[in-house]
Amino acid sequence: MYLGTPTKSKNRNGERSRRATAESFFVTNMYFYGRELCFVLAIIITTYAALQNAPPKISKSPPAVPFFPRTSLVADFFQGNLMSAFQRIAECDVSFIMYYAPWDAESQVLRDQFKAITQFYYRQVYFAAINCWQPRSECRQYFTKLVHFPVFIAYTQHAKGIQYRGPKHAANMARFLTNVIRPLVRIEQPNDLQDLLARHDAVVVGYFNFLGCLGAPGYHTFYMTALKYLEHDSQREVAFAVVTNANAAAVLGVEILPAVSLHLWNETKEYPRDAEFSSEMLMKWILDNIHQVSVWLSPPGVKSLTLSPFVEDGPVLILFAPRNPLQPHNYYYDLLREFGLEYHNCNNNTQVNMLIEILSEHQQGSDIHSATELYGFWMWEQCRLQRWARKLHQPVFPPKSPLPISGDSHIGLACRTNLSLSLIAMDSLQYRHFAEGLGVGSSVETAVVIFNAAVESAYVLEGKPSKGMIVDFVLNYTQGSLKRSLRSSPEFHCDHDNSGHGQKICIPELTSLTFHHFVMDPQEDVVLMYHSPFCAFCHSVAYVFLTVARYFRSVPRLKFARIDGENNDLPWQFTVHHYPSVLFFPAHRKSESRVFPHNLPVTVPNMVAFVLSNTEYGPRRLVAVAGLCAGWGRGRDPAGARDCVARTRRENLAALAATLAEIRATLRRGGGVSETRAGRRLLRRLQHLRHLHLQLGAADYVTDEHISIAESTAFQDKL
């Protein structure tokens, strides 16, 4: 029996079974690993997408730290806790809050000023400081539009916040707080109103019926208006008063209550009875109707248009005087106001004359009608403030024998001339830079200036002002007999070219006093550079200017100079409006000055070409070219020296041709060349030019590629 075949068949079946099992195992593993790989890829993609959509990481802000010392009388909410601060504010009658940023330089400077006020008002005012910059703090989230620090706001029980916008000084803030605490003055009799008009530019008077009811109708609105007006007038130049006496109201002509009137220096205006009696409408009515003979100006210290309405309206007289806000009167401002009343008193108004008389006597009214138990405290507070005032600045008293006034021709002058003046005053302690910009010396504390922007002119009154001097000053200006004051900065040292070549160049720094004598010399060509201390580009141009001046240093009758156009006033025909500017003033033709083109790059070759092109054609230009080659120096910039020699040859040939043309013209006219002085001068010039042409063609100039200073001087002497 044959047994081989069944055995082979079984083997083949087993092999086939094992192969199928292996394939099934491989497929199962591939499915398992593929599923795991897909799961991992899904996790990776999801994580990547989440990372891409996640908000950017922001570094945490540094922890808040106290801005004021813990021993200070100022409550410091350095973490920006606005709600906690306002809970305390709501419990106090008057609060003064400083919103600050700890990194802000102005906040750091004014921190001491804010602390100084607390020493005098801590019994009456609650002082607090809130960090309104701290990220995610209550203050930062509530005041989202606050971008400038610090901000000072006063709060009372009956009014919203009153922002302080006056000068950032403790004394000015103290005067502001005094007016917040006592915004109204009481009038008992008509004379009280006259005293208020003598001390203030205008007076807003409210008449209310305080009998028979709790709180007079309209009084609260008037009170709120007086507080809100402090945002426009932080130093209280416009007083708010209340008539509490029915007899006084009758004398003043008031019959129907409530009523509000605006008392100005020359008229009285009544608030319309049919108008809405609200704080907003009262504010608008006052601002629309007020006009003053003189104004104290306090620019805010940032870019503003405070001066523009006065300067653009015509000429303006500016009084610069030290102002002590803690003193009720300013002697120099009283002089200005008294003069202003007379200056604008066109109709010889009786009311104005009475006001002038009161002002000239320096009567000081005071609110002595307070309750008896409060009067002592008020006097004690005034004494403390006056001691502080004397530390700031000593009061100015009128002289024992003031200078007499020459006549009364200034009375009503504003109505008889087209040069009527606006009268303003500025604190010379805080705004000295304005005074210096108009030509007042840095050591002068009190000065009077007339400024006319239309013709860009300023006139400075010499000496300490008195009423008589102001009157004569204005009369002379009106008659056109004043001489314009020109600012003149002190002369500076010469500038030096430290270029490493062992050479230096000094050029004079002109002033308004030396300008005319230097630039207008008819025998000299003058190259003048106008610069400004506020011009950064002027420094780089100055080096180019000095380099060109060094190249032309051996040229006779060609001078270089500079002038500070910002600090030196010049006649309008010599002023520039672009810095830096380089002007060429040619000899004998000063009116034909030329300006270096502003569209050209300020380089040494361009500046040299500008000077040469404006030098008089002929021998004078040849002298300049020869001097330029001498200024190039031996062994430095051979290519430039070669070009300079070539140009000298060309200029020499042009001068030869021009001289020969003059000689031929003389011969055609039938005259002998050697018979006249001018002819003999032409012959000598021709001889020297011929000799110079031969020298320039010599081989040593080609090899040396320069002209020495000595040789150049010899050429210039011959020419």
Description:
By secondary structure, the chain is of the alpha/beta class. The protein has six domains: 18-52; 75-157, Glutaredoxin, CATH 3.40.30; 181-292, Glutaredoxin (3-Layer(aba) Sandwich), CATH 3.40.30.10; 301-367 and 398-478, Glutaredoxin; 509-598, Glutaredoxin, CATH 3.40.30; 638-718. It has 23 helices and 20 strands. A five-stranded mixed β-sheet has the order 1-3-2-4-5, sandwiched between helices. A five-stranded mixed β-sheet has the order 6-8-7-9-10, with helices on both faces. The longest helix is centred in the N-terminal third of the chain and has 50 residues, at 4-53. The N and C termini lie far apart (147 Å). Mean pLDDT is 80; it is low at 1-8, 495-502 and 699-710.
- Note the overall shape: flat
CATH class of the largest domain: Alpha Beta
Mean pLDDT over all positions: 80
Return the structural class.
Answer: alpha/beta
Widest beta sheet: strand line-up: 1-3-2-4-5
**CATH homologous superfamily placement of the largest domain:** Glutaredoxin
The number of helical segments is 23
Helical fraction: 40-55%
Low-pLDDT regions: 1-8, 495-502, 699-710
Distance between the ends: 147 Å
Q: What profile does the largest beta sheet have?
A: 5 strands, mixed
Q: How many runs of DSSP E, i.e. beta strands? A: 20
Strand content: 5-15%
Fold-level CATH name of the largest domain = Glutaredoxin
Radius of gyration: 43 Å
Can you tell me the number of structural domains? 6
CATH architecture of the largest domain: 3-Layer(aba) Sandwich
